[in-house]
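Collaborator request, handled under Task 6.
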Amino acid sequence: MERLERALFRLEQGFELQFRLGPTLQGTEVQVYTNYPAKGHKFDRLKFRPLDWVYPNGWEDDCDKYCRLDLMVAGSYQYYFSCGDKEKVGGGYIIVDPVLRVGANDVILPLDCICSQTYLAKCLGPLDKWLDRVRVAKETGYNMIHFTPLQKLGVSGFCYSMADQLELNPDFSPEGKHYTWGDVGNLVETLRKDWNMVCISDVVYNHTAVSSEWIHLHPECGYNLVNSPHLKPAWLLDRALWHLSCEVADGKFSEQRVPALFQDEWNMNALRGVLWQQVFSRLRLWEFLQVCVDEAVEQFRQRLQAGSGVGSSPECKKQLKLVQDPQHRRFGNTVDMNSALDIFTPHSMSPSDIQECCICFKKRLEELNSGLYEEMNHHAEQAINCIVGNVVYERLSDQGPKLGPVTRKYPLCSRYFSFPFKEMTFDEEMQLMEQREKACHFLAHDGFVKGNDLLRNCAVPGSEAYLRRELVCQADTIKLRYGEKPEDCPYLWAHMKTYTEMTANVFSGVCLINCLSTPLHVAEAMLAAARAIRPNLYVMADLFPSSQLIENVFINRLGITTLVRDAMGAADRQEEEGSLSWFGGEPVGAFFQPSLRPLIPAVSHTMFMDVSPNNHSPIQTCSVYDFLPRSTLVSMACCATGSIRGYDELLPCQISAVREDHQYTCWNSEARTCDQVNLQTGILAGKLALNRLHQELAAEGFTQVYVEQLDEGVVAVTRHCPSSHQSVVAVLWRAIKNPETQRHTEDVSPMFIPGHIQEVVLEAVTNSNKKEDKNINGLPECTVEIQEHIQLKDSKVVKKADTVSKHNSIYQEIMFEKFTPGCVVIFRVTPEPRCQEQLGALRHHLIQFSPQYQTGSLAEHSTPSILTEPLRIIMSKLTLADMNILLYRCDAEEREDGGGCYNIPSWLPLNYGGLQGLMSVMAEIRPKNYLGHPLCDNLRQGDWLMDYVSERLLAKGGAVGEVGQWFQAMFGYLKNIPRYLVPCYFDSIIQGAYTSALEAVFKYMSSFVQNGSSLVKQLALGSVQMCGAGHSWAFPTLSPHLKDVPYHLSDVTNQVEQCCVTLAAGLPHFCAGVLRCWGRDTFISLRGLLLLTGRHLEARSIILAFAGTLHHGLIPSLLGQGSIVRYNCRDAVWWWLQSIQEYCTLVPNGVSILKCPVRRMYPTDVSGPQPTEAWDQPLYDVIQEAMQSHMQGISFRETNAGPQLDNSMNDEGFNVEAGVDQTTGFTYGGNRFNCGTWMNKMGESEKAHNKGIPATPRDGSAVEIVGLCKSTVRWIVKLHNDGHFPYAAVNIPREGQTYSVSYVEWDLKIQENFEKKFYISRDPQDPEEKQPELVHKRGIYKDSLGASSPWCDYQLRPNFLIAMMVAPELFTVEKAWEALAVAEKKLLGPLGMKTLDPDDMVYCGVYDNNLDNDNFNRAKGFNYHQGPEWLWPVGYFLRAKLYFAKKMGKQTYDKTVNLVKNILSRHAVHLERSLWKGLPELTNENGQHCLFSCECQASSMATILEVLYDL
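Structure tokens returned to the collaborator:
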């Protein structure tokens, strides 16, 4: 159950968002809710609505159903889902980005195009001068102006300390004028429409100015001593420190070495002593924590005397419960008397016992008070450390402001609380603390605690930051107290909401100041109010250095569009350069993503700033040579960018957000006077070029970024367009330290740029001319020489050295001649003409797969003929057998044709030679853009993989060869483009071809598959995966009289031969040579993989081919061209018969197969293999022979018996027996030395002494064979009655006479005896149970009857489930349902069924075929069927569960359907994640992967597909 509240999901407007069920939720009642508004409704963040499920296939399937949202409204939206009766099981947030529009025609301004310049509002002067001052932003290419608050400021002049949030700063109105918010709105709209500039403004919610009139009228809006009495000790300390500061300033403590002017460490040590003696000792702050002992003891005594408790001990070690005094008075805390009486109880009510108890109680109280005294002392020690540390920083440290002597203006330490009264003595102030009308005006200032949890409110109970003097205090602000809801502080909420709405009316967006210290629920409510007025509200915030998870919480809750990242705040250059990729853009050569794709967590959208208002002047911290390179680095980022007014002009001192009366200069393109700037000022010309370039790159889709360190300080940044494949490459030389005083390397290594350098977009050299006079900004004259849009030959700093050809590309070698610190050069690069043609043509041919390739495509003059028609037309010529070659074939299959799967150097071979091998790997690489994967390296390094793909198919000829020609032609383009682009286009080609192939595959299949879910389709592909035609796997020849048999010209014999598909049992172990065709596995799988998928002809061929090999009434367990056969399994013939029954039932006119001619290899039991043309007979005769043989009894010794046939088997194991019990009608067979069912593991370990011993002989009557026999007999009865089968009975020769047993009689015998003999009753006295001492599970069905080891009959295994499904009439519904419940509880695993009851003494769930030790039960994989969880029985379990659930009633059936869906979801997940794209043969216990299992098993996929068919 995913809870994604801290994951960030960002989408643009216009996207469709789908919610789909994860695997753990399938089969459960899930409802998705969201507060995204329905069409025509307003957004209410507290109002959630349910979403309807969409069923794309028209039927209720949990795999593919989804809820959808069409995202058309910007903001942050929450979703959650319920599951059954559980509310809010999981959930998260979706951020929909706003759309900003500019100009008279409301043109969209993409977020990555934003170039913002911040203006300190107080420096703008009168409103009528603003256009002249902000014109600097327009003329230097900015398209967003970010204003600090325009409101009336507090007396400090701090930009973010507003005296009145609703009043426009009066400084903007010159004498005789009164400007209003309406005038500001008109100016903002002028900028938007006429100058194409968006305006945003700061909003501050966490504090107001000390001078705000409204806060004194409504002191409840702040933290004061009335509503926050826990602050009383901190307030007392604050006042005491103020008085101490005044005394220090007056020289009172000079003799104690604490002068007004601190000079050394001695003064600091003396200050510590004064603080302790004069402040903390006198304040006795510990009394605010302590209990009045005498009062508490007296109260305790009275309770005891009133008879409140008598116990056994006057004292114990439990803790007393302290009750906090709500008014936080000295000794105001009390003790919970109930807890006290619980702890201290007298032996009796005698006065002496009560007195003894009170003494103990008093002692514990004194201990408690002592501990509280120590606690307050720890706070005091921390407070002294903080005070002294602050004094050292402010007055002694070189990094500090060096405030000088202590004065009333610059006190010893900042004041933490306002004091709006006249000066008075400390004792008089203490009396005010208890006067509510006065105490409510002692308001806490705002601030933050360094290193503290940024989300923690320092002013609430539980935080001691004010007491411990840990606050970095903003003494000109009052911290606002909102409470949890508007009702907690109505005036404040209403005031701030009005402020928010007024801002949203004027500006396109807001910047949240002090976002981390603003209560989330407050900011959430305010932004909701703003979006109600301006739906496309742009929201920016600076979350300072915080973890991504914390950032995501704020982004999600508040719907923040953009986070500010400050390049000046980066720890070093590497961090900045790395952040270009982190904060926007993809890597160069990124893969093309499909339009419908999983939504993956994103990183926040960023505004990358060269400097922010919170930083000191960059000129004070780095050299002037770094300004332009830094701006270039920022401008090349694939995100929004920003700066602050003054940076581009190279102002020597950052304009202070706190103290600054400076007014910005105006723009004048002609003159240059003290109050005007133009493009000759600072780096303005360079910034104009960079801003234009940044916007162009974003608008034209240069979304890919690559950053490279060329030399120390020299960085190259590439922005690449994935459609046109043009690039812009910026090379810049950073100069953090002044190169005039610091040594730097003289030579820069040459750079190789792939493609054709079309122009030098910008070339800039920073020069500092030392002069004694100063310019208008007080900075030594600095000039920036700029050239724009020049040819490479005209460059002054670089030159083209040579043209080099490598990796299918022409590289321009660039030499850096006069490239010095502070230099910037930017190249525009286009592919070489030949390369451009190849890319354009390639994209043109890829349009058939996706319209995203339309941009940048070019039609060719001469197109290879194979590419003149769409690939889907070529694909339509392929058969499903051809598709097996195109899509699959593992290494063993490929090697039989003389090839093998492609081996990726330094990694692994692909699982398939066909496209699926590549698709499985690319599916891992593509979503993550993992271009460093060994497969991508291999593609960049050479054409080997491309040649492998095309040549492998070309060698096959025919329609497959045509697809090979198509690949060859497409790869022809690929071989002529830059190698760094090969992986992404190779993926596009493979992905397009693969999708086209799947579309063609499904067109050949049944409507069940075509209209089925994604899980149905994935499983149906198992039919293509496992069914292939090959010379070495060929069937015995089918009768030439049979119609519709496929033929081909053999490469080996050069003769026309039949080429029927065979079905591999499993990949990669059972798919080639003699081990490919297993009779049992073929027919377990045939219904699911061939009949249900609509491959009826292939199914018929397989049935008839095996019919031709019938011998001794059995079909072979292994079939190698019919001649290399083993007839050592008793169940394969019954699975064959079951498949014929299914064919007759599922295929239109399926009974016609019964008359099809069968070419017999063994006309008699004594004959060897006969020539292929020797003997034909109808299938119904072969069926009758199989039934007759069993009724008469089968007994023979395997041909060629001995070690040469099977070196692990004992001699007796080669004797094969089978027959029918004439009493019960049950088939039986086998002996203790062979294993004739699917549980066929033969011991192989000499060390463990299990060689030649079957792990699971299952001799006697195996339950599933009895069920299959019953199913067949019942079916033959119906066939005969319907006139499709000429035989009504089988004959038995006995004592020289022939007896006839009708199929009706046989059917009835099995029906009458099955539950009598196989069911293990709940009743211990059941007369049918002959060996009750062997029973260890009741309410189940035996695994066999009459085994040579009787206890084996009673083992719980999943085989009875097969009988349940093929012959459900044998089972009483209630008994079957009970047995299914036991199987579910004991045998069902995550993917498969345990092959043995885990309670059995020989159970072992981990299969290791390599293990050879002395463990009889495990060595050499002896436990193959003694616990490991096989998948194919799960299909029968689920089908049986569904069948009998329907008999149990609708409620039970509905519940079962949900269970089945939930179980199947695990198989869906495995299929999705498997590189083999299949379901395994088995897993180890609890679903753990088994190294020795086939990764794809035909029976596993077939039986799971059958479950979906039944659903």
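The cover message to the collaborator said: "DSSP finds 39 helices and 60 strands in the chain. The first strand starts at residue 3 and ends at 4. Please let us know whether this matches your experimental observations."
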